[in-house]
Amino acid sequence: MFRRTESPQLIISVDGFSAQGAEKAKTNKNLVLPATYKGEPVTHTDGVAANPAAISFANKGLTSLTIPQGYVRISPNVFEKNNLKELFIPKSVKNIHKSAFQENKELTRVVFEKNDADGTRGIQIDALAFYACNISTLEFQGDVNEIGRGAFAENKIEILNLPKNGINVIGTAELTDNPLVKVNNLNPTGSHFEWGVFMQETKRS
User: Fold this and answer.
1) Strand 95-96's sheet: what is its strand order?
2) Confidence label for 200 from pLDDT (cuts 50, 70 and 90)
3) DSSP string, 3-14
4) Tens digits of per-residue pLDDT, 134-176?
5) How many CB atoms lie within 10 A of CB 27?
6) Are 99 and 119 in contact (CB under 8 A)?
7) Given a cut of 90, is residue 96 above it in pLDDT?
């Protein structure tokens, strides 16, 4: 279901399923987000909090998601608790908000596309964005502006490929409870690390 706003600029967002789309999603678990609506580019997923008439994308058993080039914002909780397996984030995406993909228990691979060399800043990934998935492969091909608290905590990441230019801020406990054995392109001069980024917690039964 689409929503159009024009303040301060034109934004067209897809916020969830229509009733017809939700019915289709009961059997088709491959979601391709629309690139355009009535000839205008779609750039946001703002979720049912912004559009109560929409039916949430969350917890629908989705196994694949295609995000077209041109999207800039993925809203909080919008795709949480699905069954996504792999995810490619196009370079146009600048913000992935809190808990957007958390608890996709079958998600094993996430790749962030390389940015254009045009001086634009990299992506911002908010707290808990990919919390408690099953990610073993995490690859940043381009620049990253900030990664929030616990964004990739409680996954299966063993090898982490950081962007060569560093990350402005890596948040507290961002990678807590991952079996990390190697971090590539670790660049302390180009990054600011907050407390406990790579901390491993001992869980009590």
Assistant:
1) 2-5, 11-14, 44-45, 73-74, 95-96, 123-125, 144-147, 167-170
2) low
3) EEE-SSS-EEEE
4) 999 998 887 888 888 899 999 999 888 877 776 766 766 678 8
5) 6
6) no
7) yes
Which tens digit of pLDDT belongs to each residue from 56-68? 999 999 999 999 9
Is 189 in a helix, a strand, or coil? helix
Q: How far apart are CA 39 and CA 117, in angstroms?
A: 28
pTM above 0.70, yes or no: yes
Which of these, 126, 67, 129, 57, lies nearest to 92 by C-alpha position?
67
Q: How far, in Å, CA of 89 to CA of 65, rounded?
A: 10
As a residue count, the chain comes to 205
**C-alpha to C-alpha distances, 62 to 33, 34, 97, 171, nearest whole angstrom:** 12, 16, 19, 29
The CA-atom distances, in angstroms, between 26 and each of 30, 80, 86, 133 are 10, 17, 20, 22
Distance (Å, whole) CA 190 – CA 200: 24
Phi-psi region of 197 (alpha: psi -120 to 50; beta: other; left: phi over 0): alpha
Judging by beta carbons within 10 Å of its beta carbon (0-12, 13-18, 19+), is residue 19 exposed, middle or buried? Answer: exposed
pLDDT at position 130, please? 97
Provide the CB-side half-sphere exposure for 177 (13 A, CA).
14
